[in-house]
Amino acid sequence: MNKITIAIDGYSSTGKSTLAKQLAAALGYVYVDTGAMYRGITYFAMQHDWVSESHLNKSELITHLQNISLHFKFNSALGFAEMYVNGENVEKAIRTIEVSRLVSKVAEVSEVRAKLVEQQQQMGKEKGIVMDGRDIGTVVFPDAELKLFMTASAKTRAQRRFDELLEKGQRVTFEEVLQNVEERDYIDTHREDSPLVKADDAIEIDNSVMTKQEQFELVMKMVNEKL
Ligand code: C5P
């Protein structure tokens, strides 16, 4: 059967990864969470004190980029691929609020973006891929057959992320999460290199009042029209 590329972009916590995982499972496609890659680099940079709330040592980060290797390894028990940085499983470590606070700062660095975009394009060479992020339909795969742009109100999104973090046992307040979601959206849409924008040919989905199943069925119809 004809294989396509599905690019999913949108604001923080719009349920991109939930939808991407559902689609990948239904179609037998590979799912790539590009946010995990930016988070992986951020985690590594934090460990080396190249980034904090008050500073970003851009030159150290750029100098050492070539020594940071990222890869995904499928965990069959969990049913998704986990992120590894230089061989270390960082899947849990990259989902903390501390990483969320710094990741958009690191994602502004053009050299970081160039490295990750190249790796993402390699992963999608054979098509049959669902990739989510902020620049997938605009920069990584401008020729993707199906492009989606996800939105939902900031409050809805913060509530979802808050519930997720609580479930994972992290101690955060709703206000902290809302502030983080709003800050990241601001930086992501205002940065110079590859800002988050809807590609002209992307289909916008506002899922503020849609169930996951309704959204999945809607998008599967779009996919079937492309196959
Ligand atoms: O998707 P997630 O919320 O995990 O992404 C974390 C951050 O990584 C985003 O807020 C954004 O700053 C950055 N990112 C990016 N480009 C992508 C994916 C993520 O700049 N393709």
From TrEMBL:
Signal peptide: none annotated. Its EC number is 2.7.4.25. It comes from the Bacteria. It catalyses: dCMP + ATP = dCDP + ADP; CMP + ATP = CDP + ADP. GO terms for molecular function: kinase activity. It is found in: Cytoplasm. Residues 6-224 form the Cytidylate kinase domain. Its main location: cytoplasm. Keywords: ATP-binding, Cytoplasm, Kinase, Nucleotide-binding, Transferase. ATP binds at residues 10-18. Belongs to the cytidylate kinase family. Type 1 subfamily. This is Cytidylate kinase. It comes from Flavobacterium nakdongensis. The lineage of its organism: Bacteria, Pseudomonadati, Bacteroidota, Flavobacteriia, Flavobacteriales.
